[in-house]
Amino acid sequence: MAEANWYVVHTYSGYENKVKVDIEKTIENRNLQDQILEVAVPMEDAVEVKNGVRKQVQRKLFPGYVLINMIMNDETWYVVRNTRGVTGFVGPGSKPVPLTAEEMIPLGIKEGKVEVDFEVGDAVMVISGAWEGTIGNIKAINQGKQSITINVDMFGRETPVELNFTEVKKM
Q: Quick one: pLDDT band at residue 62, thresholds 50, 70, 90?
């Protein structure tokens, strides 16, 4: 199987989030979760002062660009390239060029894979994030996204929650 890499896609300015949502919908509709792993619009925290009021805001790190972690093949290229709002991949001509590990570091996206010995049914405890201290059994494992799904009790209902490998420890 080919290896997934991060690619940069150029979009119309202001369409970054719409492109992200549209690609995610297409991934779900065409069942491409194992080929297009993640779509990201890098954001940064900033402070704006308007009318003398300081306000914490999220600002796009690269307006007009979306990052996609995917396995490059004809089908994934076609899906991304023909999404409304996408003008093309970044690279010479029509050949997309993947980002290098050095280019990924300042973006805050970790390229390193976490190896775990989890299995479906194992009990885990959440060690960080909103669900810290919660204990649950693993319902699904996604090696590509480096995440697991557990059920948590929310308002008296079992609700699936997706967590990164680094947010849980085995009981």
A: confident
